[in-house]
Amino acid sequence: MIKITLVQNNAKLGDKSYNFQNINGLLSQNLKENTDIIVLPELFAIGWDCDCFEAQKEIGFKSETCNFLRKIARNYNSNVVGGSFVRVDENGSLKNTMPIFNRKGELVEYYDKMHLYSYLGDTENKHIKNGLVLKVVNLDVCSIGVSICYDIRFPEVFRQLTLNNADILFNCAAWPKSRKNHYITLAKARAIENQSYFIGLTQVGLIKNNIYNLGNSVCVDPLGDILFEMSENIEEVKTFKIDLKEQYRLRDEVKTLKDIHNIYDCKVV
Questions:
Q1: Average pLDDT of 248-266?
Q2: In whole angstroms, what is the distance from residue 82 CA to residue 46 CA?
Q3: Model pTM?
Q4: What secondary structure does DSSP assign to 91-143, as a single string?
Q5: Domain 2-258 homologous superfamily, CATH
Q6: Is it the case that residue 5 has pLDDT exceeding 90?
Q7: Which sequence spans correspond to the domains of the chain?
Q8: What confidence score (pLDDT) does residue 120 get?
Q9: How far apart are CA 216 and CA 237, in angstroms?
């Protein structure tokens, strides 16, 4: 059994100090048992506001946000999937980066968001440069395939993660409440088509200008059934267990992944 803890927070825009303190409080009040993986949402420390990315950028992985995540990993003896932060890379470009730490607080790997959401008033691609490489990260309890928010709309991302031996698929997001049906439907689809557990964690609560985060973080099983759905209105911490034996039993019985063709030729007539 793998024990996973999701932290669904409502980030105050541009206020890292408040958001760090708030998450510490949420964990100390609600996490009373050992856990294997703690997961945070996209941009959990600054909120979703493209116009503040430049002011909130951090250099490298010894940054304020990464040091906060290291402390969580050590304090709870847990791997940490660190949502994301705005990182200045070695070329001076800004990336929406997910850092992943082991139980000792050591950086295991990082993922730069590949697909940037730049529609309906959002301007992520004006500030952020997209990543180029998907990541499957080996932790001490399992291998995880990671993604950030808008990536969920691209099924090829999760197919590649699965074919490269990801045990569990994760999406850390700051998703708008107005598109709830899309997120839940896509989470179920990604689970079904890859015969995989899919965990979608989003921020909750007001962003600004009467725009709200979705909340409703979910865990979907390999058959597409929602095992639980978190609150759509309040901050919440949820700890649960996953048994990967059931996932691999399903794959042995229903060999969808083994029936994938290496090449799909398409003729236009």
A1: 94
A2: 13
A3: 0.96
A4: TS-EEEEEEEE-TTS-EEEEEE-SS----TT--HHHH-PPP----EEE-SS-E
A5: Carbon-nitrogen hydrolase (3.60.110.10)
A6: yes
A7: 2-258
A8: 83
A9: 12
